[in-house]
């Protein structure tokens, strides 16, 4: 059985591929893991401290300066939702 972070990585794979830049693709799974993982505080610093304190600056940059085209990501989200719930 896959660990939860492996399962999350597999789920996020089509979305992450649409982010373009390598650093965005690296930080996205970490950020999502911080949002859905344990811990009461979901702001950047507490999440980074729980997940990877050494990469706080990259974590912060991913959120505060992250520029990507949301249209392809939203289209993939719609396809994924359709697949998970059985179609349109």
UniProtKB/TrEMBL annotation:
Residues 14-87 form the Transposase IS701-like DDE domain. It holds the Pfam family DDE_5. InterPro entries: IS701-like, IS701-like_DDE_dom. It comes from the Bacteria. PANTHER family: TRANSPOSASE. This is Putative transposase. It comes from Xanthobacter autotrophicus (strain ATCC BAA-1158 / Py2).
């Amino acid at each position: 059985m896959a660990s939860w972070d492996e399962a999350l990585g597999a789920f996020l794979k089509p979305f992450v591929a649409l982010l373009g830049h390598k650093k965005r693709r690296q930080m996205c799974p970490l950020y999502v893991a911080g949002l859905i993982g344990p811990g009461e505080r979901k702001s950047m610093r507490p999440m980074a401290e729980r997940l990877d304190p050494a990469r706080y600056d990259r974590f912060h940059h991913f959120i505060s300066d992250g520029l990507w085209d949301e249209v392809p990501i939203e289209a993939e989200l719609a396809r994924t939702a359709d697949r998970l719930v059985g179609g349109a």
